[in-house]
Design a protein that fits this description.
Layout lengths: L2 E6 L4 H11 L7 E8 L2 E8 L2 H11 L6 E7 L14 E3 L2 E9 L2 H10 L9 H12 L4 H11 L2 E9 L6 E6 L4 E4 L4 E4 L11 E3 L6 E4 L4 E4 L11 E2 L15 H7 L1 H9 L3 E2 L2 E2 L8 H5 L3 E6 L1 H18 L3 E5 H4 L10 E7 L5 H12 L3 E6 L5 H5 L2 E4 L12 H21 L4 H22 L2 H9 L6 E6 L2 H17 L2 E6 L16 E6 L5 H13 L3 E6 L12 E4 L9 H18 L18
Parallel strand pairs: 17-18, 17-19, 19-20, 20-21, 22-23, 22-24, 24-25, 25-26
Antiparallel strand pairs: 1-4, 1-10, 2-3, 2-4, 5-6, 6-7, 7-8, 8-12, 9-10, 9-11, 11-14, 12-13, 15-16
Helix pairs in contact: 3-4, 4-5, 7-13, 7-14, 9-13, 9-16, 13-14, 14-18, 15-18, 16-18
The structure holds fructose -6-phosphate.
């Protein structure tokens, strides 16, 4: 989704804005722009396309020289990607950048048109700029307070006023925004990764709080124009976390970071060999009280929830519903007081997941967030939060975040099962020990790189393929299929292997690739039968199988065998070849792996 940045200081502002925008490229965008004060004039440069195109435009048109400005990467919502619709947008005295959606923009636009104002773009953002200008009578903060009272929807705004050439203003509702504090300089940004090269200290404004940044001071005000005393946060991420460090893409770097990410997430949550979530506010007593669990999330995070369903129901014997958050929020879910609702989200800002969280709270359920981004909206609003400690995930296609989400699902399931008496202390210790060993098994799975690369080479020319599995392997094949389609642009569907005969098998023709996942011994025979049925109809079958599952040569065309691993934990190793297959297929097709078309990293609109 859109990214916003802003800078006040002594450096060349245009260069700071471009370099911080480059750090937000992972969020997904289709155009970019900046506005910089240059000798009291506001100079705007914007272009459809990548930041490289904006740089090229600035090289030919000249780059503004000032020290104060705002910048934006746009992911089109209102109006096609174009130079005109790119941000920043201006109205009279005011120039702004905006992340989010102004739901009542038409109403406001009509009101402003009736007052004689004219618009040049199709965006909701220009409406906000004009509204701010309409209210501006010499005091920017007052104008902002009045304007945001009128606006419905989500926004993080970076604002400059022509009369205040050394100041930027910012305000948020729903959309993320941080205010970075350096030595004699300050920043705004959609997330902290943008500014890590300049500073690690930052404020996190709450909704409706207004930040005022000048070279002399940074102040944050409430809606009553009262100055607020906010805690200063410090980003403790490894300096290199948001860099590629020699890898060709962030995605492959992040696949390789999975063993460490799991270690960092799991080890502090184990005490004396047993899962311990007390630091996150989850006690064994509390776990005994939940009669039903609902999990709501989107995309890959929802797939992590599906793995959670299988293992929580299997081990803890608590019924679990998994919902796509955008469905959950509109289907009047039967959530009760004794229920736990788990929201899973890497970014912690996904609009539908946040709405599902708020709905669950309003229905009286206890809420648990499993979130990667510290201090994000979902983490802040949930009753309890377990942070996944994967560090920043930059590639749009989620890999390490999924891995740590399922790691937390396991910790939770073990703890809930032990609390309920559904498993013995001995079994809980065994399972926890296996989870502590899993980083090594994931490292072994990463060594299947070459096999995955070969499998990918057989897929590049496919128009469509199927992923199949049963039980946990079905949950996993859904993730494998999503990964492939989002970055390779090859159509794929995942199917419960037993469901194929009920319609989908009619799609299978000579040479159609099928990827089967077989890690559960109990279901081996059934899935293998389904593979035979597919092969008999001409399918080219690739199989990812557990070490104890022998695949005969007449059942599959290509076999990727995993190393030894506790069967219950197999998704954590089996997902790796699926991630690698998706990655190499996209690389072989020459796609922009880290920034696939039309996608955004943090989906802050419905
Ligand atoms: C796919 C992917 C998305 C996200 C989804 C939810 O690789 O990354 O499907 O999983 O948009 O995002 P978060 O986890 O930030 O709520």
């Amino acid at each position: 989704m859109c990214g916003i940045v802003g800078y006040v200081g002594r450096k060349n502002c245009a260069e700071v804005l471009l370099s911080t925008l480059e750090k937000l490229e992972y969020r997904g965008y289709d155009s970019a722009g900046i506005a910089v004060f240059d000798k009291n004039n506001i100079e705007v440069r914007k272009a459809k396309g990548r930041i490289a195109e904006l740089r090229a435009k600035m090289a030919s048109e000249g780059s503004p020289e000032g020290r104060v400005g705002i910048g934006h990467t746009r992911w089109a919502t209102h109006g096609e990607p174009s130079d005109i619709n790119s941000h920043p947008h201006s109205g009279g005295n005011v120039t702004i950048v905006h992340n989010g959606i102004i739901e009542n923009y038409k109403e406001i636009k009509n009101m402003l048109i009736s007052l004689g104002r004219e618009f040049v773009s199709q965006t909701d953002t220009e409406v906000a700029a004009q509204l701010l200008d309409f209210y501006y009578k010499g005091n920017p903060v007052e104008a902002i307070i009045k304007a945001i009272r009128d606006i419905r929807g989500s926004f993080a705004l970076g604002i400059i006023f022509r009369d205040f050439p050394d100041t930027i203003f910012a305000v948020r509702k729903e959309s993320p925004l941080i205010v970075g504090i350096g030595e004699g300089e300050s920043f705004i940004a959609s997330d902290v990764t943008a500014i890590l090269n300049y500073t690690r200290d930052y404020y996190m404004p709450e909704p409706d709080e207004i930040a005022v940044l000048s070279p002399y001071s940074t102040k944050i005000y409430g809606l009553n124009y009262n100055q607020l005393d906010k805690p200063l946060h410090h980003a403790d991420w490894d300096e290199n976390a948001a860099e590629k460090q020699g890898y060709a893409h962030f995605m492959i770097k992040e696949i390789n970071e999975q063993p460490d990410a799991v270690k960092t997430t799991v080890v502090p949550r184990v005490t004396d060999g047993l899962p311990d979530l007390s630091e996150c506010g989850i006690t064994y007593d509390m776990l005994r009280g939940f009669k039903r669990i609902n999990i709501a999330a989107c995309g890959t995070a929802m797939h992590a929830g599906l793995v959670g369903k299988y293992i929580i129901e299997d081990l803890a014997e608590i019924p679990v519903n998994v919902d796509i958050a955008s469905e959950f929020r509109y289907r009047k879910p039967l959530v009760k007081k004794d229920d736990l609702v788990i929201i899973i989200s890497q970014s912690g800002e996904t609009a539908d997941s946040l709405a599902a969280l708020r709905l669950s709270k309003s229905l009286g359920a206890k809420t648990l967030a499993i979130v990667n981004a510290k201090g994000s909206s979902i983490a802040r609003e949930a009753d309890m939060t377990i942070y996944t400690l994967a560090g920043p995930e930059i590639a749009v296609a989620s890999t390490k975040a999924y891995m740590v989400q399922i790691a937390v699902m396991y910790l939770f399931a073990f703890a809930a099962a032990y609390a309920n008496g559904a498993i013995s202390e001995q079994r809980c210790r065994e399972l926890t020990a296996s989870l502590l060993e899993i980083p090594e098994k994931i490292s072994e799975a990463i060594k299947l790189n070459d096999k995955a690369q070969y499998a990918a080479s057989t897929l590049v020319n496919a128009d469509s393929l199927l992923y199949i599995g049963r039980g946990l392997d079905y949950a996993l094949s859904m993730e494998g299929s999503l990964k492939l389609k989002e970055i390779s642009y090859i159509h794929s569907e995942s199917y419960a292997a037993g469901e194929l005969k009920h319609g989908t098998i009619s799609l299978v023709t000579e040479g159609m690739p099928v990827i089967a996942v077989v890690t559960q011994k109990e279901l081996e025979e059934k899935t293998v039968s389904n593979m035979k049925e597919l092969k008999a109809r001409g399918a080219y079958v690739i199989v990812v199988a557990a070490s104890n599952i022998l695949i005969e040569s007449d059942v599959a065309d290509y076999v990727i065998n995993l190393g030894e691993c506790d069967e219950m934990l197999s998704p954590m190793t089996a997902v790796v070849p699926l991630q690698l297959i998706a990655y190499y297929t996209a690389v072989l097709k020459g796609n922009d792996v880290d920034r696939p078309r039309n996608l955004a990293k943090s989906v802050t609109v419905e």
